C-alpha cells in the first residue's frame, strides 16, 4: 500500500466507528436544536422568577460576612453580597464569593469517607470517630509530639480555646493556625 493510500485508507472497523459517531452527533444536534432556545429579555433580567432573597452570613470563617441567597422552592440558586452588612459592607473574600458551592458543588463531601486500596468508601460517623480515636491514641502512646493540631479561621474564640486545651491534654505544643503553614 502506498504512503498516500495508507493515510487515506479507512478499514471496515474504523468506518463503522466513524459512522456510529456521526449518527450520535446528528441525534444530539437534532435534540439540542429542538430543546434549546435563546432567552428573552425578561428571562435575562430575572432568570429565576418568583425567587426569594434571603439574608444570611458566610460560614467559612468567623468574620461572618453578609450574603444574600437567592432561593427558589427551597433551593439556593444564586448569591450576592449584602451591601448593607455592618461588618463586610458589600465585600467578600475569594472563599466567600462562592460560598454557595458549599451547598451545590458536585464534589462536596457529604459524609465520612475513607480510602481503601486506592478507592474512596463511605463510612459511618461512628466508624470515622473510632478510626480517628484509634490513630490518635496510637500516636499519643508512642510520642505525642508526632501530632500537630491546627485551628482555622472558621473557629470561634471558644472553639480555639477548646482546641488549645485538647492539644495540652494530648501532650504537645504543636498547635498553630492553618493560615500560617
Ligand atoms: S470566608 Fe471570607 S467572605 Fe466568608 S466570612 Fe470569612 S472573610 Fe467573609
Radius of gyration: 27 Å
SSE sequence, one letter per element: HHHEEEHEEHEHE
What is the arithmetic mean of pLDDT? 84
How much of the polypeptide forms β-strand, as a percent range? 15-25%
* Total E-strand runs: 7
| Bound ions, cofactors and other small molecules, one mention each | iron/sulfur cluster
Are there runs of 5+ residues with pLDDT below 50, and where? 1-12, 21-32
Count up the domains. Answer: 3
Helix content: 25-40%
Task: Report the structural category.
Answer: alpha+beta
Protein name: Formate dehydrogenase-O major subunit
Keywords: 4Fe-4S, Iron, Iron-sulfur, Metal-binding, Molybdenum, Oxidoreductase
Pfam family, one: Molybdop_Fe4S4
Cofactor: [4Fe-4S] cluster
Verbal overview:
This protein is of the alpha+beta class. The chain has three domains: 3-35; 46-104, Single Sheet (N-terminal domain of TfIIb), CATH 2.20.25; 113-180, no CATH class. The protein is 39% helix and 19% strand. The chain has helices at 3-8, 12-35, 41-45, 101-104, 125-142, 157-170, and strands spanning 52-57, 66-72, 75-81, 113-116, 119-122, 149-151, 175-177. The strands form three sheets. The protein has a three-stranded antiparallel β-sheet, with no helix packed on it. A two-stranded antiparallel ribbon has the order 4-5. A two-stranded parallel ribbon has the order 6-7. Strand 6 (149-151), helix 6 (157-170) and strand 7 form a beta-alpha-beta unit. The radius of gyration is 27 Å and the shape is flat. The termini are far apart. The model is unreliable at 1-12 and 21-32 (pLDDT under 50). Residues 58, 60-61, 63-65, 88, 92-93, 95-96 line the site of iron/sulfur cluster (SF4). The site of iron/sulfur cluster has 11 residues, from loops.
Amino acid at each position: 500500500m502506498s504512503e498516500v493510500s495508507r493515510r487515506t485508507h479507512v478499514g471496515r472497523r474504523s468506518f463503522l466507528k466513524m459512522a456510529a459517531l456521526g449518527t450520535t452527533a446528528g441525534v444530539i444536534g437534532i435534540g439540542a436544536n429542538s430543546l434549546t432556545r435563546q432567552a428573552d429579555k425578561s428571562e435575562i433580567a430575572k432568570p429565576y422568577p418568583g425567587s426569594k432573597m434571603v439574608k444570611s452570613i458566610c460560614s467559612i470563617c468567623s468574620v461572618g460576612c453578609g450574603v444574600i441567597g437567592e432561593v427558589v422552592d427551597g433551593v439556593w440558586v444564586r448569591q450576592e453580597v449584602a451591601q448593607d452588612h455592618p461588618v463586610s459592607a458589600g465585600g467578600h473574600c475569594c472563599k466567600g464569593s462562592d460560598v454557595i458551592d458549599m451547598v451545590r458543588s458536585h464534589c462536596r463531601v457529604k459524609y465520612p469517607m475513607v480510602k481503601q486500596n486506592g478507592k474512596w468508601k463511605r463510612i459511618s460517623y461512628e466508624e470515622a470517630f473510632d478510626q480517628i480515636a484509634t490513630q490518635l491514641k496510637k500516636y499519643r502512646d508512642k510520642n505525642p509530639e508526632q501530632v500537630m493540631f491546627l485551628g482555622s479561621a472558621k473557629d470561634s474564640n471558644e472553639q480555639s480555646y477548646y482546641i488549645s486545651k485538647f492539644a495540652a491534654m494530648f501532650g504537645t505544643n504543636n498547635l498553630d493556625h492553618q493560615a500560617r503553614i
